Amino acid sequence: MVWFLDFFLEEKGSFTIKSGQDRRIPAGVYSMKWHNSPRFGRKLPLLYNDQVPESRYILIHSGNHAGHTDGCLLTGFTRSDNQVGNSRENLIYYWSS
User: Which of 2, 15, 71, 95 could lock onto 22 through a cystine, CB 3.0 to 4.6 A?
Assistant: First the structure.
């Protein structure tokens, strides 16, 4: 079992399994694999499961507020109302391949 001491932020509102919708992801247990992201220019964790296909492109990436999520999860060491902090540092610390 792996324990993380970080916070995640995602978009408010309803969820979807469809790609390109900038919506929350369904609650559940997800598998992870590394994805070469052309947009971010690096490998990032990609989440998927039986209900949510890899083509939904749920990535864990850096950002500070919901406007940065693009339907993905943001990670950070700190949190406050509707944002996470130290996101890039967190991504490097926990999520570098």
Answer: 71
Say how many C-beta atoms besides its own lie within 10 A of residue 84's C-beta: 24
Task: Report residue 92: phi and psi, to 5°.
Answer: -65, -45
**Cα 77–Cα 81–Cα 86 angle in degrees, nearest 5:** 25
Residue 54 burial (CB count, 10 A): 14
Contact 69, 22 (CB under 8 A): yes
DSSP assignments along 30-91, one per residue:
-EEEEEEETTTTEEEEEEE-SSS-GGG-EEEE--SBGGG-TTSEEEESEEETTEEESHHHHH
pLDDT for 9-64, tens place per residue? 888 888 888 888 888 888 999 999 999 999 889 899 999 999 999 999 999 999 99
